[in-house]
Amino acid sequence: MNVIASVALAESKPATVNSLHESAGEKSSLIVTTDYILGPEDVLEITVWRNIDLSKTVTVRPDGKISLPLIGDVSAVGKTTVQLADEISGKLKEYKENPQVTILVKEVNSYAIYVLGEVAHPGKFPLKSKTTLLQAVTVAGGFTATAARNKIVVFRFAKDGTSQIKIKASYDDIVLREGSNQNIELKPGDQIVVPSETMVLVP
Description:
The protein has about 200 residues and is α+β, with helices and mostly antiparallel strands. The chain is built from six helices and ten strands; from the N terminus they run H-H-E-E-E-E-H-E-E-E-H-E-E-H-E-H. The N and C termini lie far apart (about 70 Å).
């Protein structure tokens, strides 16, 4: 009884300040980006205070723009919600005195990765938190029996946005050897390709 009671008391103790800080730090380490940058396919709820006609839910088009009443097309890609709201507010000043614009991201669709090849469930996956290469393979159901797991390739858009860089990785190096640096943190748009052993053997 005494042992059970002491365990119960220990479990009922409130979290300490240190433990709360540690938990907050652990959660913060999962953040993909400190400032969310808008991208194509994101769904935005744009509200102009006290003006229902100008308020609208829109999807960012493939050309990176959205269309709004009165002001027409506005470029959204590459901006934060605050930056976009400021720009829309500035354009609306021609038609309305002191417009107050708020933007809510209703659907995050532009932050995604693609896992292809010899995995159980290839496809597009949302990048909702910080994700490594091994985590992406796990989300895709793991390797198939014919996967060349030591010949993984990640294709990533370069900073100029027009070219791609190729990153090679080996599962055995990551797990069994000193190759943890190959277990890279993925970025939106990354394409992970797991080839088959037969592809690797072909000259």
